[in-house]
Amino acid sequence: MPLHLLKLCVGAESISDLEAWIEERMTLERRLGRPQEQIHTTRMVPKRIDELVAGGSLYWVIKGQIAARQTLKAIRPFTDGDGIGRCHLVLEPVVVPLEPRPCRPFQGWRYLTETDAPRDIDGRSGDLGAMPEALRRELAEMGLL
C-alpha cells in the first residue's frame, strides 16, 4: 500500500491556481532548454522514500482543504549552497482533484496513509466532478460533502 505526503500549497487560491503555476514553470523550463520536470523543494527529507515513490502522491492543502494531489515520481535529497540538507520532490505535472476534506494548517509535511487519503474526483464521483471547485469547497466547509 503506497504512502503519501500531505503539504500546504501556500499562495494558491484554487486548484486552477496550482495548475497555472505548474504550466508557467513547465513553459519556463521548455524555453530554457532544461528537462521538463516539476520539482517542489522542501527542507526536510522524508525517511520513508521507498514507500512514497512506490505509487505515492503529494496531497495539497489549498485554503484549508485537502483539494488535489500529484503523483510522486522521485525524491532527491541534496545539500544547497549554504550546506543545508534539502529535498526535491519530483512530481507528475498532472493535478488530480479530490473530494475536498478540511485540514488545519501545519508546518512542513505529514505522512498520509492510503486509508486516510481523500478519494479522487473521477467517474465514480457522480456530479461532483462537474461541480465548480468553489461550490465543492463551500459545500465541504458546510459539512455537506
Q: What does this protein structure show overall?
A:
- With 145 residues, the chain is of the alpha+beta class.
- The protein is 21% helix and 35% strand.
- Strands 1, 2, 3, 4, 5, 6 and 7 form a 7-stranded mixed sheet that branches.
- The chain is globular, with a radius of gyration of 16 Å.
- The model has no long low-confidence stretch (mean pLDDT 88).
Task: Give the helices and strands, then pairings.
Blueprint: E1 3-8, H1 15-31, E2 38-42, H2 49-53, E3 57-62, E4 65-79, E5 85-91, E6 96-102, E7 109-113, H3 133-141
Parallel strand pairs: 1-3
Antiparallel strand pairs: 1-7, 2-5, 3-4, 4-5, 4-6
Counted by DSSP, the helix tally is 3
Number of strands: 7
Radius of gyration computed on alpha carbons: 16 Å
User: How much of the residues is beta strand, in percent?
Assistant: 35-45%
SSE ordering: EHEHEEEEEH
Spans of at least 5 consecutive residues with low confidence: none
Percent of residues in helices comes to 10-25%
The largest pleated sheet is described as: 7 strands, mixed
Structural class: alpha+beta
Report how far apart the termini are: 26 Å
Backbone shape: globular
The residue-averaged pLDDT reads: 88
